[in-house]
Amino acid sequence: MPRKLLLPYKSVFSHFRAPRGLHDSLAMNAARSGYRVFSANSTAACTELAKRITERLGAELGKSVVYQETNGETRVEIKESVRGQDIFIIQTIPRDVNTAVMELLIMAYALKTSCARNIIGVIPYFPYSKQSKMRKRGSIVCKLLASMLAKAGLTHIITMDLHQKEIQGFFSFPVDNLRASPFLLQYIQEEIPDYRNAVIVAKSPDAAKRAQSYAERLRLGLAVIHGEAQTEQDMDDGRHSPPMVKNATVHPGLELPLMMAKEKPPITVVGDVGGRIAIIVDDIIDDVESFVAAAEILKERGAYKIFVMATHGLLSADAPRLIEESSIDEVVVTNTVPHEVQKLQCPKIKTVDISLILSEAIRRIHNGESMAYLFRNITVDD
After folding, report:
1. Spatial separation of the C-alpha atoms in residues 93 and 86, rounded to whole Å
2. What is the spatial distance between Cα 51 and Cα 195, in angstroms, rounded to a whole number?
3. What does the mean pLDDT of the chain come to?
4. How many angstroms separate the Cα of 33 from the Cα of each of 156, 160, 201?
5. How many secondary structure helices (H) and strands (E) does the chain include?
6. Which residue of 71, 83, 175, 225 could cross-link 168, Cys pair, CB 3.0 to 4.6 Å?
7. pLDDT tens-digit profile of 118-175?
């Protein structure tokens, strides 16, 4: 029998045309491998960090419009397709915290309803992080915000130096808590000429762990300021209400031992700062009264130059003026929070750029790479 000739693969199927749905499917799969970076801020000054990050990534900032209507409501409009893509929302927190939170929530929800695959919030300073513990008759607002972000559609968060590391437990999705200390340590080594003659200072025992970490890495001494003046707020905090009733009938078996009230000791400096540069380290500098008071004490103890290093420079209210009039020689903060206005009011404020680590975190998360490289030599106490 004559053998059948087998036509080449191309000639057999050359007359077939792929269905239109197949082309759409291939295009969608190609789009799924992409990512977009959006800025959720309506303030022009706050988009600077987003632009720095996109420049390092070699990407363009996503097209969106965020604005406030005349009645005060926030409106977000996404101007391009995000279907099947990884979306990174960069949100810095200006002075109007609540507006920034609503911008983030509404943009996340808009992207969720536009079928984005993953929505990752890049929030260098996480708002309400100071309200992460139950105090008096308040509430844990930070946990409420975490639940709201999850409900809005966020699937991951990148942040930096949370006020309490335990805040990560409030979230039902992954949280990468990056550190700014490598950049601040580099600033100390490169911008403070005689840093070998410095001592790292914790302005309270609560900040001792952070100060100890800096001191061990720089091979410097450590000092801790202990004690402070008692204020009226410490006395009137509602803990003694309802008022104690004299001659009250109490069952003998229910008598509890009386807890002795705390008495704050006078301010003392544990450690030698005489003839040295004092570098006060903390995570947040907002109300600067405590930093100014610490600087005065260190000056009295013989420190000839005083620096303040912090990750988040909120610098609220009259902070620039108080810093300018104080014994502090320089305040060094990162650009996790916009503070250009404060820098114009106070030349002592210096800024360290941390866009490098944020852009690298975005790249690694999108490519599915390990984040361990960004946490080299970082211990549990850091």
Report:
1. 22
2. 33
3. 85
4. 18, 27, 47
5. 12, 14
6. 175
7. 999 999 999 999 999 888 888 999 999 999 999 999 999 999 999 998 999 999 999 9
CA neighbor of 312 nearest in space, from 220, 178, 216, 195: 178
Q: What letter does residue 372 receive in the DSSP assignment?
A: G
DSSP characters for 191-204?
H-TTGGGEEEEESS
- Residue 350: per-residue pLDDT: 96
Give whole-number Cα distances, 377 to 206, 213, 252, in Å.
22, 11, 56
Task: Say which residues have a Cβ less than 8 Å from residue 162's Cβ, sequence separation at least 6.
Answer: 126, 129, 168, 177
**Residue 242 CB contacts under 8 Å (≥ 6 apart), including other chains:** none
Tokens encoding 196 = 């070998």
Q: Give, in degrees to the nearest 5, the angle at Cα 91 between 123 and 58.
A: 95
Q: Measure the CA–CA gap between 25 and 28, rounded to whole angstroms.
A: 5
User: Contact, 356 vs 171, CB < 8 A?
Assistant: no
Q: Are the beta carbons of 119 and 154 closer than 8 angstroms? A: yes
What integer is the mean pLDDT of 353-377? 93
CB 34 within 8 A of CB 80: no
CA distance 125 to 163: 9
Whether residue 242 is preceded by a cis peptide bond, meaning omega within 30 degrees of 0, is yes
Are the beta carbons of 226 and 290 closer than 8 angstroms? no
How many Å apart are CA 264 and CA 99, to the nearest integer? 38
pLDDT in tens, 273-328: 999 999 999 999 998 999 999 999 999 999 999 999 999 999 988 999 999 999 99
Residue at 247: amino acid letter:
N
Amino acid at site 242: P
Predicted local distance difference test score (pLDDT) of residue 254: 65
Whole-number Å distance between alpha carbons of 278 and 200: 6
Contact 94, 128 (CB under 8 A): no
Q: Are 225 and 294 in contact (CB under 8 A)?
A: yes
pTM: 0.83
User: How many Å apart are CA 200 and CA 190, to the nearest integer?
Assistant: 16
Helix (H) or strand (E) holding 187: helix 181-191
Would you give the DSSP letter of residue 263?
A: -
Mark 347-381 as b/e (b = at least 16 C-beta within 10 Å).
Answer: ebbeebebbebbbbbbebbbeeeeeeebeeeeeee
